[in-house]
Design goal:
Largest sheet: 8 strands, parallel, barrel
EC number: 1.3.1.91
Number of helices: 17
GO molecular function, one term: tRNA-dihydrouridine20 synthase activity
Order of helices and strands: HEHEEHHEHEHHEHEHHEHEHHHHHH
Family: Belongs to the Dus family. DusA subfamily. Belongs to the dus family.
Number of strands: 9
Strand order of the largest sheet: 1-2-4-5-6-7-8-9
Helix content: 40-55%
Structural class: alpha/beta
Organism: Variovorax humicola
CATH architecture of the largest domain: Alpha-Beta Barrel
Function: Catalyzes the synthesis of 5,6-dihydrouridine (D), a modified base found in the D-loop of most tRNAs, via the reduction of the C5-C6 double bond in target uridines. Specifically modifies U20 and U20a in tRNAs.
CATH class of the largest domain: Alpha Beta
Strand content: 5-15%
Shape: globular
Number of domains: 2
Amino acid sequence: MANRENQQLGAGLPLCRLSVAPMMDWTDRHCRFFHRLLSRRTLLYTEMVTTGALVHGDVPRHLRFNAEEHPVALQLGGSEPADLAHCARLGEEWGYDEINLNCGCPSERVQRGAFGACLMAEPKLVADCVKAMVDVVDVPVTVKHRIGIDKVERYEFVRDFVGTVSEAGCRTFIVHARNAWLQGLSPKQNREVPPLRYALVHRLKHDFPDLRFSINGGIADNTEVHSQLRLLDGVMIGREAYHNPWWLAEWDSGFFGEAQRELTREDVEAQMCDYMAREAAEQGTPWSNIARHMLGLRNGLPGARRWRQVWSDHKLKGLSPHAVMALAHAIDPARESGQVPQGLASVPS
């Protein structure tokens, strides 16, 4: 294919200084639409989609996304080169800007499928998977992985993994700077208990200067992002981006050099209401399925708790999203005046 030589040389890759991590049950297309309203430049990742879901399941349900989401990357979970090649081709046909292979998830369910973090023990297999995908798509193929598995903490382990996989055509690695403990820890504990070791990721960049490295894990403020970007090519933010999404509104100006936009939380909420109405009309999607992703939008502001309660109240699901927004913003004045607007009686105090 025309762009494959450039891809393998590392040219023409999308600028990914900041990205939002793939998060199961969270970064669906509604969440990504919301995040795109906040940042135009940040690279957004899908939830992990398994090859089995695409080979044997409903492809449109798993791959459909909104045009506004670009740039957007599809993360795949699998370990069979032929299946991954098939799914990568599907991802490219559906318009994704990048195909990412999950070599970092430590959950038991993923391990039973023989993919995720356990693949780090088989770098040659990962290389075969990457090559199979690189051979059939023009978009970049990337790998997300840990710095080690279980109690293997030698730098040489992750160094040799990256070296082997890069020879197959992967030029960009997203590194969660913790080990994955495959036994004894839950996925949540695996995000918190194994110690962060950023220095190993920095060392990878030193040893492989022609490759691109983004770092993931425990990064939660602008100061740390800037610190990492002085040493690496990109930073991936996970749960902090989800729980405190307004932070994303600073990223385009702070990290991509764009002019600061005049954007308010109310602007974003109103645009989400328009989107919810569109989704309800076109897909029959209840607004509550979408609103859950924006519940952190007003974190830190007076009245945020009551605002979240309104948007979380399923007893209001018969109302239009714009009506729910009006109720959410009517709460504080109503409580001060002692008057509760019709439809708010079910909202707990």
